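Penicillin-binding protein structure dump, as promised
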Amino acid sequence: MAREKQRREPRFDGDGGGDLRADPREDRMAKPKRKGKSAPGKSAPPPEEDDAPPQRSMPKKAKKGGRFGLGGLVYWGAVLSIWGAIGVGGLFIYHAAQLPPIDTLAVPKRPPNIAILAADGELLANRGDTGGAAVRLRDLPPYLPKAFVAIEDRRFYSHWGVDPIGIARALTRNLTGRGGMQGGSTLTQQLAKNLFLTQERTLSRKMQEAILALWLEHKYSKDQILELYLNRVYFGSGAYGVEAAAQRYFGHGAAQVTLAEAAVLAGLMKAPSKLAPDRNPEGATERAAQVVTAMAQEGHITEAMAKLALGRPALARRERGAGSINYAADYVMDMLDDTIGAIDQDIVVTTTLDRRLQEVGEKSIAEELDKKGEKFGVSQGALVALDPNGAIRALVGGRNYAESQFDRAVSAKRQPGSAFKPFVYLAGLEHGLTPDTVREDGPINVKGWQPENYSREYFGPVTLTKALALSLNTVAVRVGLEAGPKAVVKIAHRLGVASELQPNASIALGTSEVTPLELVTAYAPFANGGVGVQPHIIVKVRTAGGKQIYARRGSSNGRVIEPQYVAMMNTMMEETLSTGTARKAELPGWRAAGKTGTSQDFRDAWFVGYTPHLVAGVWLGNDDNSPTKKVSGGNLPVEVWSRFMKAAHQGVPVAALPSGSWRSAAAPADSLSPIAPLLDFFSSDPEPDAPPPRPSRRRQVRDEDEDVAPGSVHGLEALMPPADIPSQTPRPRRGPSREEKNIFEKLFGG
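structure tokens r here:
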């Protein structure tokens, strides 16, 4: 041990340990080699193999694994991820630059909706770009929003606007072809697309959609986003928002939808037009079943609820009055512009319309045209019904709204024919005539214009009552000339006709065009005792929150007919329904009055009739103004009117039309028929019917006896007099006219 610990000193002799002297070749330090360079003209000597420092060799496998093994994969994966993130970030920055600045971005205001209600508060229609009002999430049944979450975005409450898991799942399904094509968009992304972007399918749009979805998630809560979504997305058939869709497909608001109906609505998001329940009930039911199943899987509903919904699938409602109610709704929109001006929020409009009468009016016209339209060559119709105070109860603008949106009740100007004659006779009464005044029914020549009766036959001397009831043209022209065409026009305007009227002799035969609404409005004073009315359809307007912004005040045009003349006209027009051209009109228990009308060549057929409860007018004809096959006011229009008025008067207490002892308060005695005092003496009835005149050719009045004269007068030009007819002024009269003497002589042989 001691020997081993003994220090050994180096030896410098040649015996052991080797020569320690420096080698001349190594007595200077070697300079470091510069790669690729050497002294000019010299090349570095290669190191001798024996003198090279020993190299530790590594196994080849170990060297390869160090460079390309698991660590290398992690390294390069990290590198690629970084560059990918940079690339995606660059794309986001680029596409974000195409959007407006985020600090100025705002959710676009929802287009206002106009809810149109009947007089009893029932919803009739929605107008506006959305088709329905906005609803609050808390007002909906809980299963309704959950249906959309379950089928469209199950991770809605856990992601932050964009769902990578959902995108990956959609890509997987798309690549494997399982489950159909999947979009991977969240509800927030769908909302962003609906609010800010177009429907184009491009990478740029998807990138912007994701950016906007992130912004929405940052700015709004999940419930706010879901509420926005339910009020903005498209459900097909012109319905934007869940309220509009519920009304459109099921006839009630979103707050009342059942679980099965909620599943149908949520299922529409896949293909709104293709899966609409009113067009494709089988497809809608199948998709709704998928929604119910998804809701059960997510725990939103119980198994029992799911079985009940699957066993009783929702069915779309059948449209009630869908066609005609749109004519009325369009008219409401036209009137709103004048009533409250620009609309910038959801509003609720209460109208004067009666849903039941609207449907009865539509059905009455449709049934008549379906049954007799082809036979009589008539294709269109219109109906207007007013309360005597001017409130519009029904407005049917055509046979089928889906085929034609043109509102004939409001916008079509047509010749009223003899339906215009009440204004002529009223002018005569105000001029001094009475219902018993006698005028000659015979040929007449007005500066070369020779109007005739339909049959080209004449009755001779007749009372004005019978002349109006039988719609005798020659008597109407005589009365019109006697009162003056300008006076006739003035009275028509005073009573409610707004269209321009030509003050010439032919005005007595209704050759100036008017609309059905105008004509019915002008008849209202006869029903209400002589007060001019303003036709109106809007009662009040309020915001969706309940604030009232308009309320109609009771207003009229004041008295436009003196009471005694109202009584006279009602007596005369009641005769039209008793013995005249409208005797086919049926309204059991009621005394009604009215007037038929037929324009030249049977192009337009009218009947306007009234009771103290309702004034209604019917027009039938063709849009191209082509002649019908002898449709007159006394046949098809009277049938439509009778069907409508019977339904309208069900349960209404019977009342009499305004009347009075007009004979004692009428114009001077010399204008009365000479038989009137005798009739008054023998009768206690203050309004006795005038005795029937004897036809000059002993013939019976036919249904088609009207103001037309085919074969002798064709078109409006033939009815126009060749020169202006001056307005006539009243002339004092000293005794009974020759016509009155003639009828007196005929009746009593004098």
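Residues 138-311 form a domain with the Penicillin binding protein transpeptidase fold fold (CATH 1.10.3810.10).
lmk if u need the other ones
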